[in-house]
User: Fold this.
Amino acid sequence: MFSRSDREAPCYAADMHEKLTAIVWDFDGTLVDTRRKNMNVARALVENITGRSADEFPALRSMPGYERALHRHRHWRDFYRVELGMQDSDIDRTQDNWLAFQLADETATETYDGIHEVLAAFAHLPQGIVSLNIKANILRFLEQLELAHHFHRVYGAECVQPGFQKPHPDALLRCIESLTGGEPGYVVSVGDHETDVECAHNANAHFEQAGVDLRVVSVGALYAPHIDDEHWRVEPDCKVEAPREIMSELAEVFARFP
Ligand SMILES: [Mg+2]
Assistant:
């Protein structure tokens, strides 16, 4: 069921900019509110691997604590290492078991209010996902939430070599290439984490260096509660506090572009 304000979301994406060629989304915390599910999965994993109660770890005790801890780290492994004091070998086991624990967990998830409308407003453009989640898990969510038809490409964590995940631009560059064929223009990237913005900046540095007439326009998605972007060392082109603001904020950004 959509709220009144969702139905009123402006749908003028087709007129936004003639050089806009594609949209690339982060998944967790941007399209789908997976926070509680991911915390429950992390709690179960940590209890399984360490033999300790998840409540012993402040970063796993409450949603606000979990979210703030996640956003303190640029790499998910640092969350497990610093916040939970886990060794590399145990973090590897966490990674290996993530999908099985995701499939076993039955916590409900839903899209952020207004996401369906924004995706529909961009339906004339190819859209993709670049995520640190696992592709099979993302595809399962997309089917359950009836979002799959919006996306032409999905790049999960395992789609690039270890060490080449966000903020490295590898997956984003591959996604853009497959969505646009490298056509000159603008690609919008939407993400809720500092690493998403860094990834967009790194892709732009790559295009500049390669002399490619392509630019990633980054949107900071700050609509999940407890997001603190004050420590971000990079700035997106615009920030939104609700999905429905994406269209209007982007229109303002593109009004300044040639
Ligand atoms: Mg995210």
